[in-house]
Design brief:
Blueprint lengths: L6 H12 L5 H16 L7 E3 L3 E2 L6 E3 L4 E11 L2 E4 L1 E2 L2 H9 L6 E2 L3 E5 L2 E5 L1 E2 L5 E8 L18 H17 L2 H26 L10
Parallel strand pairs: 6-8, 7-10
Antiparallel strand pairs: 1-11, 2-11, 3-9, 4-5, 4-11, 8-9
């Protein structure tokens, strides 16, 4: 049976591998830096699905989910039909809105991200329409010693190697060792993603990983 690891297990292993008990406080910072590095990438536990968002007639801006990181696909669902909306910049949306005296209402076709919201054009003509879709989430980093989860289990080796690279680079100042650890981290991340893709996709087909 596989052993479930914790944040404390990762910290202890890094301290043991470096043989530097005096760096215990630096290890936490390095782990968080490593997680931040990899959390910018799409991965299989960072896939979120929108809870359907009801349209409000004439409303331009809608709140994004609290764990939103990056849009994968936004759809407008209306009258039994689902259309994929096209991305625009917020400036393009504003310009289209400014070109008419009254904001255009209809079936929303375009969206843009702006802060914690997405804005649409045209604005919805019906409260029976709704937004659905998929997005990349911000998967929470561990904080407490007994925290488990993706970062200290499935992604344990790339995170651990990258954290050691950070320590060698920023604290110990052994730059060749840092490069070795960064290289191992990247190789391990590639293997992890390949394994996850193989479970869900046919040969030759790969998910969006922008």
């Amino acid at each position: 049976m596989a052993v479930t690891l914790t944040y404390a297990n990762m910290r202890d292993r890094i301290v043991d591998e470096l043989r530097r008990t005096d760096l215990a406080s630096n290890v936490d910072e390095a782990i968080q830096d490593a997680i931040k590095h990899f959390s910018r990438r799409a991965h299989f536990v960072a896939q979120g699905t929108f809870t359907p968002i009801p349209c409000v007639v004439g409303q331009k801006a809608y709140a994004l989910p609290a764990d939103f990181s990056r849009m994968v696909q936004l759809q407008i669902v209306y009258s039994g039909t689902s259309d994929v909306m096209k991305p625009k910049t917020v400036h393009e949306i504003d310009e289209m809105d400014d070109n008419v005296t009254d904001p255009l209402v209809g079936i929303p076709e375009f969206y843009a991200l702006w802060g914690a919201n997405f804005v649409i054009y045209p604005r919805s003509e019906s409260a029976s329409y709704e937004f659905q879709g998929r997005y990349q989430t911000r998967y929470a980093a561990p904080e407490d010693d007994d925290d488990e989860g993706f970062w200290v289990n499935e992604a344990e080796r790339p995170v651990r190697c990258f954290a050691k690279g950070v320590l060698y680079d920023d604290t110990i100042r052994e730059y060749e060792a840092a490069e070795r650890e960064f290289g191992k981290a990247e190789s391990e991340w590639i293997e992890l993603m390949a394994e996850s893709e193989a479970r869900a996709y046919e040969p030759g087909i790969r998910p969006w990983c922008g």
